[in-house]
Design brief:
Layout (H helix, E strand, L loop, with lengths): L1 H5 L4 H25 L3 H27 L8 H11 L2 H4 L2 H18 L7 H18 L7 H11 L8 H20 L6 H4 L13 H27 L5 H20 L12 H14 L3 H17 L5
Helix pairs in contact: 2-3, 2-4, 3-4, 3-6, 4-13, 4-14, 6-7, 7-8, 7-9, 8-12, 11-13, 12-13
Length: about 300
């Protein structure tokens, strides 16, 4: 039943996923609303929710446009389930907006495959990543994916300088804003977030259970994705490699992140949703897929009762 419904890509799938995410988002923020309703906070939370829902749409568009998956709703379902399994993530405005910027950047990087206005796309991708780093510093590591895209599609020396130009553009815009709005200079100290290698928070069951299940999904589906990569056409292979690069970078971000509360994993859910989707679209074991989907969907619904 679940595989039949999400195995197709229809507007109804998107509505169901959006409703599911909205429901969990409201639950995650209910306490704040209950204690003291504030109109400004309400509109702020509404903007965050819209950014989260827009992230789902952009991810779906990226996967379809670049033929990373078949026409199914698995990818948006997985992204919705993974993100709503961590309430700290749903309360983290900065990381949600940073993730949306990263998705915009990822879209431009993958579109290099068309070989049209390629230099502008590299600039745009770097620009969005630098914007994301203002919200969440360690997302700057996604510049690695930009350089991988340059290596695959336009390796001439002059093209390696484009990210530097985009970086300087964002820095100067941000510096100008701080000078005009706050009358101070925005420097590295305000931008940088210190590394934290303390993973003790992951012992908490509310983090350990979803993280363990999500890692199990990665281990179970990654082999299939690597096999798909080997069989992919020459034109598609660089795009699949970029998905793998983004997976590695997102793991590095989670390791370096200053706060380990689950919100740092949101970047990891972008490539994982694509990788898991390719497995579900190709495997024939319907019973196992039904059970796994049911467990994943129930996970964010049951986790609030653990504590």
């Amino acid at each position: 039943m679940l595989t039949s419904f999400f195995g197709k890509s229809k507007p109804l799938n998107g509505i169901v996923v959006a409703f599911f995410m909205t429901l969990i988002f409201v639950v995650a923020n209910f306490k704040e609303y209950y204690l003291a309703f504030n109109l400004a906070i309400f509109f702020e939370k509404l903007a965050v929710l819209l950014a989260l829902l827009l992230s789902v749409y952009v991810l779906n568009f990226i996967a379809k446009k670049n033929e990373l998956t078949r026409r199914s709703a698995y990818k948006i379902l997985f992204f919705a389930v993974f993100t709503t399994s961590f309430f700290a993530l749903l309360n983290n405005t900065q990381v949600i907006f940073a993730n949306l910027c990263i998705l915009f950047a990822f879209r431009r990087i993958l579109s290099l495959r068309s070989k049209k206005i390629m230099q502008k796309k590299v600039f745009d991708a770097t620009f969005w990543i630098c914007i994301a780093s203002i919200f969440y510093f360690w997302s700057i590591l996604f510049l690695v994916v930009v350089f991988a895209g340059i290596l695959f599609y336009l390796p001439k020396f002059k093209n390696w300088l484009i990210p530097l130009v985009a970086f300087l553009a964002v820095y100067l815009l941000n510096l100008s804003f701080h000078l005009l709005a706050y009358e101070n200079i925005y420097g590295f100290a305000q931008w940088y977030e210190p590394v934290n290698f303390d993973f003790s928070n992951y012992r908490d069951l509310s983090l350990l259970i979803p993280l363990s299940l999500i890692l199990a999904v990665l281990i179970w589906t990654l082999g299939n994705f690597l096999g798909l990569l080997q069989k992919a056409s020459i034109s598609l292979r660089p795009s699949l490699n970029l998905v793998l690069f983004s997976l590695v970078v997102s793991i590095a971000i989670a390791i370096f992140s200053p706060i380990k509360d689950g919100s740092e994993l949101i970047f990891f859910f972008i490539p994982l949703s694509i990788i898991a989707s390719t497995w579900f679209e190709r495997k024939k074991d319907k019973v196992f897929k039904e059970i796994l989907l049911a467990i994943l969907i129930l996970m964010p619904l049951l986790l609030p009762f653990i504590n």
